[in-house]
Amino acid sequence: MDIVTLSHGSGGINSAHFIQNIFMPFFQDMMPFANEDSGIFRANDNNEKYVTSTDSYTINPIFFEGGDIGKLCVCGSANDVAMMGGKPTYLNIAFIIEEGFKIQELKKIIESIACECKKLDLQILAADTKVLPTFNKDLEKKNIFINTTCIGMLEKVNISAASIQHEDCIILSGKIGNHGARIFLEQNNIALESAIKSDCASLYPMLSKLFASEIPLHALRDATRGGLASVLNEWAISSKVCIEVNEEYINIDEEVRGVCEILGLEAYDLANEGVCVLALPQEYATQAITILQEHELGKYAKIIGKAIQKDIINNLKLAHSSMQDSETLEKMYLQRVVLQTKYGSKRFLEYPQGELLPRIC
Fold this sequence. Notes:
Residues 167-311 form the PurM-like C-terminal domain. Belongs to the HypE family. The chain has helices at 13-27, 69-82, 103-120, 178-187, 204-212, 227-239, 254-263, 285-293, 312-316, 323-333; strands at 39-42, 49-57, 63-64, 67-68, 86-98, 123-132, 144-154, 169-172, 219-222, 242-246, 276-280, 302-308, 337-340, 346-348. It is of the alpha+beta class.
């Protein structure tokens, strides 16, 4: 690996290797939450714990159907805090603006940020602005990049990508692929008569009642870069389980399927900005879905599969002829994601490869 490529920021297997091989040799000892999207810290001597997350936003186009970079930068960091069981409370924000950027567009972005902060009752603690000399020859397309750091009080404990257990149910909160499909259409100026819009939204309002309940959440993740496929593969590896999901239970709009055919991709790989995946004990699954469906963002919530850690071969109903075959198959399927297709066959749902769509968040 001699140079950084776009695929290193895709959220797929290349990103995972990039972080593991380049950053972690230096940061490993100082990153106790390296496999999570947020970290937890204690601010004083009492038992209060806080969650924090930081993220940078480079999306192109800046304005898109369903949102803009302003809404996205608040929702994105707030969602990362929520995925660790936190209530988003404070925000730090930094703007990097290319010289020549239109003031009117900047005002629209700031208005979106303020609007989303008010929805979540977020307070902005600190902010910074930098202006770069112009580097884009297109006078009409100047860039803005935004970094946000969100902090919130921890409300739900013991959520981790490494905590998934045998027979945990995997729940998907909504339809997948809409954000990635919308951004693809706009990046490529494809003028389809399409109702697809980004699902960009803050997820804490949907999750707050779940956090207040006695339902144990083992893992929780928003399916952003790399989509559902990345989340499930990360979980399978971190928790050392096999995850089986059923294609029929995964909700995808037909228009998104159509865009995927154009792209030659699967909706499982596309980014989402208002969808999360949950892993929890099966005896709580029905109750959790009922709570999620009370909120508009969770009305399509559904069990899509389960985690398997023991007797994988029998659980997956795989044929084998000997104990040797069984042991080999067990190793082959552990830490993998299996997709049961609508035709009844099974295949691995792989980590996304390469750069799928640049600058989608």
